[in-house]
Amino acid sequence: MVLSVEDFADDETLDAMGIEDPFDLTGIYEGIPLTERSVEHSGTLPDRVRLFRRPIIDEWAAGEDSLEHLIAHVLVHEVGHHFGLSDEDMHALEEAVQ
Fold first, then answer.
1. Which one of 30, 34, 41, 92 is separated from 47 by 20 to 30 angstroms, measured CA to CA?
2. How large is the average pLDDT for residues 37-56?
3. Cα-flanking dihedrals φ and ψ of residue 42, to 5°?
4. Is 4 helix (H, G, I), strand (E, B) or coil?
5. How far are the Cα atoms of 7, 12, 24, 25 from residue 20, in angstroms, in the given order?
6. Residue 44 belongs to a domain with what CATH number?
7. How confident is the model at residue 43 (pLDDT cuts 50, 70, 90)?
8. Tell me: the pLDDT tens digits for 26-40?
9. Neighbour-count burial for 77-86, b at 16+ CB within 10 Å, e otherwise
10. Does this model's pTM top 0.70?
11. Exposure string for 25-34, b = 16+ CB within 10 A, e = fewer
12. Helix (H, G, I), strand (E, B), or coil: what is residue 8?
């Protein structure tokens, strides 16, 4: 898996997700979740997690969490998609540990 940090998501990514404000996207998983892989996916590009620096910093400045906590939260969320977890699955897990 490739991890990259960029200032913002590119316009193509934002358009594909139906997001108008680039500050609304802090990270994204791009790839095929492990639960959907088969031998037919051999030789494909590696999965990628992209974190978007400016939206993360903006969310941190407006909130009460530490920057480290927020980055870890976004990263764990995107890696969760790699393991086949949905947004609902991850929210349920977060609520269970609070």
1. 92
2. 90
3. -60, 135
4. strand
5. 16, 11, 8, 10
6. 3.30.2010
7. confident
8. 999 999 998 988 888
9. bbbbbbeebe
10. yes
11. bbbbbbbeee
12. coil
